[in-house]
Amino acid sequence: MKRIFTKPGVHPYDEIQWERRDVVMTNWRDGSINFEQRGVEFPEFWSVNAANIVTTKYFRGAVGTPQREWSLKQLIDRVVGVYTRTGIEHGYFASDEDAEIFDHELKHALAHQVFAFNSPVWFNVGTQSPQQVSACFILSVDDTMESILEWYKEEGVIFKGGSGSGVNLSRIRSSKELLSSGGTASGPVSFMRGADASAGTIKSGGATRRAAKMVVLDVDHPDIEEFIETKAREEDKVRALRDAGFDMDLGGKDIVSVQYQNANNSVRVSDEFMRAVEQGGDFGLRARLTGEVIEKIDAKDLFRKMAKAAWECADPGVQYDDTINDWHTTPETGRITASNPCSEYVHLDNSSCNLASINLLKFLKDDNSFNVADFVKLTELIITAMDISITFADFPTEKIGETTRAYRQLGIGYANLGALLMATGHAYDSDGGRAVAGAITSLMTGVSYRRSAELAGVVGAYDGYARNAEPHKRVMRKHAAANDDLRTVGSMDAKIHAEASRQWSECLKLGEKNGYRNAQASLLAPTGTIGLMMDCDTTGIEPDLALVKFKKLVGGGSMQIVNQTIPRALKQLGYQQEQIEAIVEYIGENSHVVDAPGLRPEHYEVFDCAMGERAIAPMGHVRMMAATQPFLSGAISKTVNLPESATIDDIEQVYLEGWKLGLKALAVYRDNCKVGQPLSAGDGSKKQQEQPKEPEVKVIEVNRPTRRRMPNQRPSMTTRFTVGGAKGYMTASSYPDDGLGEVFLKMSKQGSTLAGVMDAFSVAISIGLQYGVPLETYMSKFVNMRFEPAGMTDDPDIRMATSVMDYIFRRLALDHLPYDERAALGIFSAAERAAQQRGEDPAALQEAVDREALAQSAPIEAAQPKEDAQPAVQELTLESHQRFTADAPLCMTCGTKMRPAGSCYVCEGCGSTSGCS
C-alpha cells in the first residue's frame, strides 16, 4: 500500500480542525421538530447540508441514547475498521505497516470528502444489521408461476432494505401464446401489475425512500407493444380521473389507482432491430418457448411508438442489447439481460454491485492541472477496499450472494465532472470537455483493472474467471484499443491520457499473467446522497444544474450564492479580478452569463448548464455519454433532458444516435410531459397532441385602468411576524365590499435605509392593487423569492419562509384568497393541512371558518376568482415551480421537491434518493 495524503506516525484525524454543531430538522407540514441531535462533531470545512445528511441518515443508534453515534470519526471508524480487519484476516496486506497505511488513507479520504462508498455501506457495515454493501441488484424470472412469485418476494426483501433491483421479463410467454392446459397465457405485462402494487405498498410502509425498480422487455417479445404503451395509457387515465374530480396530484388519495408507476421501463433493442429501423423493413416477434416468429411488424412503426410513449410520459428508455453483450466479460456464464433501476449496473442475473464514487474536484490543483499521481493511488485504494467488502458482505438472497462472491462485481465511478470542466474553462458540450472526461474515465478503469490483476496475483482471480478468461481478456483489449483511439485536445487531457495508456499496457500484461479479481470494475452512478455528503457541485456525469444555488446556513435559513467554480473558471480564462467580480455580480442578479459585462461571447459555452438561459442541447448530453462509455465496465446513469417543445422526431433521433455512438442504455425526459405532479397549470383535460401547436392569437381591446382609491375608513388587519429572527409588522387594508387594496410594511427604525425601501415597496404594491392588479399576480412574482433573512417563522400557518417577501405574500394569500385559488398555488393553513392528513375536505373546513367569521362580522375579504388571474397562476406553476424538475417526486422523508441525479432523484434537504446511491 502507498501513502497518498497521510504521514507516518500522524493519525489523519489529528490534522483536521473539528467543531461541534446542532442538527435540527423540522416537519415540512407543520414546522414541528422531527429530528434533533445536538453537539455532533464534524470537520469545520464540511457544509451544514453535508453534516445534516450524514447525521440524520448514516449515524446509527437510537437518538438520545449513549449508543447513538455523535461524531463523523465514529462513523468512519465503524466502517473502515471492518474493512481493515477483514483485509488482514484474508491476506490482502503484505505487512502490518501496509494495513495501517490502508486504514489511515481510507479515513483521510473519507473525512476530506475525496470519495464515498454508496449508502448501504454507511447504513450497515459495523452494525448488528446484515453487512449489506450493495445498492444495485439484478434478478431473474422464468416462465413458471413459482418463479414469478419468487420474484415478488425477492423484490420485497430488497425494497424493504432501501435498495433497488432490475429484471427482464422476456422469458415469460406472451399473451399470444398457449399454456400447457390449452388456455392463453396472461403475459408479462399482467404480472407487472402485481409487482408494481407490491412495490407501492412496501414504499408506503415506512421505507426511507421510494422503491426503485427497473423492468426490461426484449424488443422481439410478442407483447412489446402493450409493454411500451402501459405508462402512457396510465397518463390518459390520470387526465380522465382528474377531469372527473378525483385527487390525482402526487401524494393525492386517488393516485394509487394509477398502475406501473413504481418502475422505470426499458426496451432491450437489438442491432437487428435498429438496422431494420434505419433501412425500413419488417421485424419478427418471437414465441418465448419455441423461438419461432409468430408475428411480423414494421420496425419503424414500433420505434415510433417507443418514441411517442417516451414523449408522453418519459418511458420507456432503451437498452442496446448487442452493445452491452459485446463488452461482457463473462459471456460463458450467461448473457446480460437487465440492469439495476438507474441503468448503470449491467451484468449477470441474480447479482449485485457495490458502488463508490470519487470527487474529481479534489484532484484539481491550484495551477488548474489534474493531480494524476494522487488519482491513480486513490483508485488503487478504493478498488482494494471494495473488493475486501465482498469478502464480508451479506446479501438479500442466497442466489445473489453466490453470484456476487463468484464474480466480485465492483462499480467505481466519480462525481463533480461538470464542476471540474467549468473550473478548468472547458465547455461541457465541446471536444475539449469530452476529451477530459474520456481521459479521466479511461484512467480510472485502467487503474482499476490493473489493481484487480494485482489482487488476483495475491488472493486469486474471481471464481468464474477460468471459464471466461478469453472473453474477459478480449474486453480488456477493447478498452485499451478505445484508449488508443482517444484524441486529446489540450495539455490537461493529454497528460491524463498518457498515464491512462501506461496503465492499460500494464493492465494487459498483469491480466495475462494473473487473471483478474473482478468481473466488473467501473460505472457512472447518479451519486445522489453521497454527492451531497461530499459537497459536490454536480452529480455523476451531469453538468451543473444552474449557475446560482442556495446554501444552507448554520441555525437555519439559506442564502443565494453564485457557484464557486465560476470565479475559478474566469481566472483560468484570463480575466482580471475586477472583471471577475463584475461578471459574478451580474450572474448573481440574472442567473446567466448572456451580456455579462466584459465576458467574451466565445466563453459563454463554458457556463452552459442543464437548465436556464443557455441550456445544453440534448445531443450534447448524448455525446458526453458516448465519450466515456468505451472506458466503463458498466453503463451510465443519466437522463437526456429535452425541452417541452421537443418533438417525437427529436426523441427518435436521440435513441438512434445513442445506438450509433455505442451507448449501452439511454433514457429521456421531456420537460413537463407528465400529468400527475405536485402543481399543474390549466385544467389538465386537454389531450396532448403528437406535435406542439402554435397558440391561437387573439387581439382584445382593453380599456385603460383607473385607480380606485381607498375610502377614509376601511377595515384592516395588522400582523406581527418573525422571519429568520427578523421582526416586522404588516398592515393590510381592504375595501369594505371587495378585497385587498392597501399593504404597509415596517421592519426597521424610521429613517433607516430598510425602512425607506419597505415604505416605497408598500406604496408601489398598494397603488398596483388599487389599479386592479390581482393579488394572484403579485403572488406569482414574490412567493418563493429567496434572500436573507429566511428560515423559521412564528406563524403556525407558515412555518418556513424563503424570505420576508415569501412570508408576506403567503400570509396575504391565506387572509385574502379563497381556498380553491390558494390550493392551485400550494398554500394551505395549518388546519387545512391537518384536514388533508385526516382525509377530510379542506374546502369544507374553509367554508365553515368563513361562515363563523361572517356570523361574528369579522372583516374577511376574499377576492373572487378573475378570468385574467388565470395566466398569473399558470406563470407561477410553470415558471417558478416546474421547469426542469416538473415531475420530480416529493421526498418521502421531508416533503421537499427532489431534483434529478442521473436517472434517479435526490432530495437536497435530507439526502434521500429514489435510486441506488
Which structural traits does this protein have?
10-stranded mixed sheet, single chain, RNR_2_N, RNR_NrdJ/NrdZ, Anaerobic Ribonucleotide-triphosphate Reductase Large Chain, 917 residues, 28 helices, RNR_lg_C, alpha/beta, 3-stranded antiparallel sheet
Overall helicity? 40-55%
Q: What would the principal axes of the Cα set say about the shape?
A: globular
Treating each run of at least 4 consecutive H or I residues as one helix, how many helices?
28
| CATH class value of the domain at 136-326 | Alpha Beta
Whole-number mean pLDDT? 86
Largest beta-sheet details? 10 strands, mixed
Domain TSCPD: 711-814
Organism: Nonomuraea monospora
Cofactor: adenosylcob(III)alamin
Keywords: Cobalamin, Cobalt, Disulfide bond, DNA synthesis, Nucleotide-binding, Oxidoreductase
How is the topology of this model organized?
Blueprint: E1 18-26, E2 33-43, H1 48-57, H2 72-89, H3 96-111, E3 115-117, H4 119-124, E4 136-138, H5 145-160, E5 164-168, H6 188-203, E6 212-218, H7 224-243, E7 264-269, H8 271-279, E8 282-286, E9 293-298, H9 299-313, E10 317-320, H10 321-326, E11 351-359, H11 372-392, H12 398-407, E12 410-415, H13 417-423, H14 431-459, H15 465-485, H16 491-514, H17 528-533, E13 548-552, E14 558-562, H18 565-572, H19 577-590, H20 618-628, E15 639-642, H21 648-660, E16 665-670, E17 716-723, E18 726-734, E19 740-746, H22 753-770, H23 775-782, E20 791-795, E21 798-801, H24 804-816, H25 819-825, H26 830-837, H27 842-855, H28 870-882, E22 899-901, E23 904-906
Parallel strand pairs: 4-5, 5-6, 6-7, 7-10, 11-12, 15-16
Antiparallel strand pairs: 1-2, 3-11, 4-11, 8-9, 10-16, 13-14, 17-18, 18-19, 20-21, 22-23
